Amino acid sequence: MVTVLHMAPVRFDLTRGDLSGSRQLPPTPGWIAAACWHHEPMRKVLWLAGYVWALPVTMLGLMLSMLFAHLESVDEEGILHFVVQPGTPLAWYMRRFHISAFTVGAVVTYFGADGPRQIRLVRHERAHVLQTLVLGPFFLPLYVLASLWQLARGGHPYRDNWFEVRARAAEVPGYRALRLVR
Fold this sequence. Notes:
There is one protein chain. By secondary structure, the chain is α/β, with parallel strands linked by helices. 46% of the residues lie in helices and 13% in strands. It has seven helices and five strands. The protein has a five-stranded mixed beta sheet with strand order 1-2-3-5-4, sandwiched between helices. Helix 2 (40-53) packs across helix 5 (119-135) and helix 5 packs across helix 7 (162-171). The protein is globular and about 45 Å long.
């Protein structure tokens, strides 16, 4: 059974920078939202272009998830939410390395059945989807390079990765960037 998730839009005042205003921030990357937040047809075209641009990465995520997980839901933005099947090699790997979820393209795979209902986790993974829509096939190599860069600087390859820092910032509206304390 597939359910469609409907997340309420975040209300954000672009002039004051807080969450109490009357304008709605559309679900698009920041620079696109600032340029065309009031143009609904343009927003749809940009989303479609992002999905086409990220299609090779999404297909990779879809192949991986279809082997070891089942489709739990599809949200209103077209993001596919899978839950890993117990007893599969992917379930073992995610349990072994304490991975709650991962994103490849517009496909999010969760370790537990409650994953798609954890709003912070969904927001975190949605941020990775948006990163993929902007960077397309370059996302995965850039993610690896960002991890290697942090490792070379003496940082943590996951915790200090630029993409992860930005995804943690998306978990809580209003925060610019959340850095984990070591």
